[in-house]
């Protein structure tokens, strides 16, 4: 039982990332009808927002430290972060340590701006074009964004640690009634799971309980009728594109301590996230979230050494096998609706 619980926990952090990215993909498809293959790049840009904030907070200047000398007895020159000079050593170091959560403050406006530019500058011209055209142009945009990131940040992964207070592991088994030392789980992965639940709950609450969200849901169901009521549904859908970009960006920001950001991480998550969307059902927000967590947990179990000893490489293909089985039995996905992407 403890091994089963541990694998479920291990699947929650990757499942959380899948669910958040798939949620944004489904928001865009459900409102605008666009298959956005650049959505993984938004996840990557969010991750590099965290890298940027970390580097800005670590900017330093040279000071003479009279208390330290070299072998000749000369005072040493040391690099002191500006934050330590402005706020003192303790508070300055604390701010640097919490750079990843603080990057959320930068990521939200940046990602909404990026989403608005993408939608207004490019994607709006492909609303009435075939889905194949949308896939080609957004995939090309993803490659461009990926290469821009590689040009400015390099090709190597950039370590972005979690705050000092949230590093290490917690004895999770004690909370579930097991003996001490049975189930250890990294603190930050648990934080990421809770963060994803907060974002998912916020998006659903926004769509369900606000007037803006109700109009958007009505527009998703019948865009023409809402337009005839005198509502500028296009502006609302553009804002939803920005919100979807922000969701993907926040997923990337908080995932950086789990996976060091690199320029191709968006592509790594993109294909799997599209599988998640299809399994959940195109256009279904609950389906995207459900399948994200489900496939994350399934992949975790497939990564066990005992399983790979019997079926080598199964962890690399298990998601696609599950997708095939589900689509053979439920062609519209778990919670898919009739008429979505059907002729």
UniProtKB/TrEMBL annotation:
Principal place of residence: membrane
GO biological process: amino acid transport
Transmembrane portions of the chain: 20-53, 95-114, 190-216, 237-258, 270-297, 309-328
MF terms in GO: transmembrane transporter activity
Keyword entries, A-Z: Amino-acid transport, Cell membrane, Membrane, Transmembrane, Transmembrane helix, Transport
Record membrane topology: Multi-pass membrane protein
Family of this protein: Belongs to the binding-protein-dependent transport system permease family. LivHM subfamily.
The protein's name in its UniProt record: Branched-chain amino acid ABC transporter permease
Upper taxonomic lineage: Bacteria, Pseudomonadati, Pseudomonadota, Alphaproteobacteria, Rhodobacterales
